[in-house]
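Protein modeling request. Please complete all fields; requests missing the sequence field cannot be processed.
Requester role: graduate student
Desired output: 3D structure, token encoding
Chains: 1
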Amino acid sequence: MDEDDALPSLMQLCLFSLADNMKEVWMKDSADSYSFRHVMGPFNLLPGDLVEDLTCLLSNRKQLSRAALHFLLVPQLHNLSLERCPGLVTSAICAHIAARCQGLWSLDLSGAQQLPSKVLSATLCCLPALRSLSLAGGPFCLSSSGSSFCSTSTSQPPVASSFCPSSLSSSSFASPSPVPLTSLLALDIGFGEQKEEPAAAAAYLLLSLPGLKTVAMEGVAQACRLIEHREFSQTDEFSIREGVPRLVEVWSKRRHRQDRWMEKREGGTAAAGNEEYEEEKILWEGYCEDSDEDVSGEEGPSCTGNQVEEKRKGRVSSQSGDEQLILQLKNVKGVTCDLLDSLGNLCPHICSISVNVDHKTDTVARNQVSVLAAGLQTWPGQLQSLSLLYPGPLEDLPPALRVTGSSLVSLTLDGVKTSPHCPLLEVMEACPRLRELLIFAEPPSKPPAVQQEDVVGQWVSLGRPQLPNLCSLSINFSLCHSQIMPVMSWLSLRKVLKCLLVGSPLLERLSLVSLPCPLNCLLEDLLAVDNFHVSGSVWFADLCVYANLPLRHVRHVDLTWTDVKAVMVETLVRRCRRLKLVDVSHCWEISLDDLVTCKSLSDVKVVWVK
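Delivered output (610 residues):
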């Protein structure tokens, strides 16, 4: 729920009132600690989605307390996120979650530092309907023993066993209904102490969770290579140490389950009312159907439904003779580019991926980018979201982006190094369907002796590139703490930005931070419509001007550490009629007096920190 909405609904206003009075009215007789397993409180009769909205609202405002949680943990809750208040996640709270919220579909405990691994494991045992689990940044697996992922208990129910690769007992694999988890986010939780343990643990999870579609976890790509080449003997020591079945047994059962479902689906031999068939259908229908929908949706410019089906059948038929397993992963984070081939062979339906590209020397970096381009060939016309962590030159990336850029709707480039001559416009032209573009970059170290703007000028004169679907743009440069202002080392960036902003009429969120070029004059040029005001007697020509005015849809603007002036902020507030927030923190041309004047002009929130 967005508190910034111009006209909140009556339901939202009621929730705002509840949140405002939570402590004084609803929680005034409550304590942080309870021993009651079940509590009949004022929120037990509220629909679950409203309880979720209220919990989210309190969490975003940093007003969520343990006492409030005791009343908000109700049986009708389906989604619970404590990511913004990880300090509240304790053994006691998890006991209440396990007892009261057994219908949870989604649980986010990211960042929790006070939760013992055994408590986490016990909690997961009580959540059989869980579809999404996030544990990112929590110390849930500090060693290979005594953690929720590496418990040696052999008496856990199948639900917990399916979450914990090191506690996957034989009975869990014999179960006809594996846990229906579809999303697992577990980066930075420490999969064991041994070097091979992340890949082994990831392999166990990938094979024991057939419905998994979204995963962020250490060792995923390595696990795919291990599974692809069936190098299961490498994990035997891990299996013995943790007391779990050998990985080859897990693979065999997964393969058998997949083949059985495919035979039933293609032959139509299963009765519609058969309970086992229906359970397997829930887990496996995405393998053949959901992937096709994701790939052939309106975002994909080149792959029709028939083409996707032919591609899938070709992939399966080419691999079935080799007893290859197909995973239905669609969203993968934290892989390295040198293992994309194995990932692609096992996961042909990926539509979103986050890749780390190693960079030690320029030569190694360019070789890695070549490997990246080859790896991305696995999903042509299919990939919709791409995130690259690449601390190398930006000019190395256009060839790789051209491979898959035609279908991308979201692109993130993190850590790239820029120069006054880097082809930023080429990057944008390679991805014409983008809705979201985020670039976190290192600025040029120093300006060249002569600024070369002729190439940029040619692009601008041709009106290229245009990103007509772009809704969110962030171009943020790093800045040393000792710097008062960024060095103006990339003056030609002004023309690049102008071209981009003019060609992005649907832009709603704009972030331009620590730019190595003047910004105030650029905005003056963009918004140069003198004395323009919309009124009842406005001329048709003026309406046409407004219809083509850049930034006319923008709602949130971040101009931190730039040279914008107070007059320009006033112009933004007047011209951009949907604007709700402007952040001009650390803008050295703006003073406190200017801020007071800007705030008096409208209800637009103006943020400024000296």
